[in-house]
């Protein structure tokens, strides 16, 4: 089954889990992975079918330095088959844990945070920040015109952000925000 057909079939079966009709586009995935270097330890949450995972590994990151967190079991099976050496965790983003004790240098998120209530956003971001190095980037995709984390959540965690240009090659057009705690 192709990535697209798997994604669409899971969207039809679980529309509350999957908020986009198609996977993240390659241009957006490259923007999300732009800051990755080969010596980092990275977590990707909401990995889906692996478009962003491909972009992360294309930056030279060894597979054993990448952890994927994905709620959808069918996507996890797909990720395990397509990305040997990468650790795939079938659990929600807010349950991510630093299992080997080495903090992450970056967390990249495909989780659709914009429509979520503040409490759920805060639990996801709080979990990520708890396993990241201080000042490490939390990268988040969004399709809307506003930052993908609410003002309350940004203020609560002391987050500042930069945003990418709008990526028109993505369907729907996307932006990538990079949040850091200062």
UniProtKB/TrEMBL annotation:
Keyword 4Fe-4S in the entry? The reply is no
The GO molecular function terms of this record are:
methyltransferase activity
* Keywords assigned by UniProt, alphabetized: Methyltransferase, Transferase
GO terms in the biological process aspect are:
methylation
Q: Which SUPFAM superfamilies match?
A: S-adenosyl-L-methionine-dependent methyltransferases
The UniProt entry, under InterPro entries, shows:
SAM-dependent_MTases_sf
Q: Which domain of life is it from?
A: Bacteria
Q: What is this protein called?
A: Methyltransferase type 12
């Amino acid at each position: 089954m192709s990535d697209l057909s798997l994604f669409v079939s899971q969207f039809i079966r679980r529309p509350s889990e999957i908020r986009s009709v198609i996977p993240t586009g390659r241009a957006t995935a490259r923007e999300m992975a732009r800051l990755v270097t080969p010596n980092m330890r990275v977590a990707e949450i909401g990995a889906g079918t692996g478009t962003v995972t491909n972009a992360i590994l294309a930056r030279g990151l060894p597979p054993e330095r990448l952890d994927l967190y994905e709620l959808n079991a069918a996507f996890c099976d797909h990720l395990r088959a397509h990305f040997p050496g990468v650790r795939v965790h079938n659990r929600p983003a807010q349950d991510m844990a630093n299992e080997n004790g080495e903090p992450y240098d970056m967390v990249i998120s495909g989780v659709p945070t914009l429509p979520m209530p503040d409490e759920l956003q805060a639990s996801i971001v709080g979990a990520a920040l708890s396993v990241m190095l201080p000042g490490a980037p939390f990268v988040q995709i969004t399709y809307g015109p506003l930052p993908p984390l609410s003002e309350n959540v940004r203020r609560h965690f002391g987050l500042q952000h930069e945003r990418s240009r709008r990526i028109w090659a993505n369907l729907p057009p996307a932006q990538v925000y990079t949040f850091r705690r200062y």
